[in-house]
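Summary of Year 1 activities. Much of the first year was spent building the evaluation harness for sequence design. The harness presents a backbone, in tokenized form, and records the residue chosen at every position. We chose the following record to illustrate the format because it has been used consistently in internal testing since the harness was completed.
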């Protein structure tokens, strides 16, 4: 569920129109979270959660709009041009980023494991999410 630091490389990603581009440092073997909360299930978001140090925004800071709801802890960022949410600051890991795996250009990974997470009942299940690794 958390990108591990071993043998990581920088991989590019972005929104549909190209106005927002980023890089994420991720290894060849990753674990993704497939959440069924109201937001993720409607957008088909697959989470690759990384510490802030493993994420770089390359382009589009001025094109990013932010949406918050409920507690306001999660910062749902999306391209104001095409509407794609390619990354955001998750409520579960406010010191990191969740990258939408489907927005990565390089999807050549040795191993991709997807774990389902019951985000519809977030309060009850949040403790199951792994903490971010320390840099």
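For this record, the design step produced the sequence shown next.
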């Amino acid at each position: 569920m958390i990108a591990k630091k071993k043998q990581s490389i920088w991989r590019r990603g972005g929104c549909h129109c190209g106005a927002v581009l980023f890089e994420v440092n991720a290894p060849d073997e990753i674990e993704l979270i497939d959440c069924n909360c109201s937001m993720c299930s409607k957008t088909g978001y697959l989470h690759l959660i990384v510490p802030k140090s493993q994420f770089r925004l390359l382009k589009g800071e001025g094109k990013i709009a932010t949406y918050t709801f409920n507690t306001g802890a999660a910062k749902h960022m999306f391209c104001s041009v095409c509407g794609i949410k390619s990354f955001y600051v998750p409520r579960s890991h406010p010191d990191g980023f969740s990258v939408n795996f489907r927005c990565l250009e390089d999807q050549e990974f040795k191993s991709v494991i997807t774990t389902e997470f019951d985000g519809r009942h977030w309060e009850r299940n949040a403790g199951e999410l792994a903490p971010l690794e320390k840099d």
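The chain has a mean pLDDT of 88. Quantitative recovery figures across the full test set are reported in Table 2.
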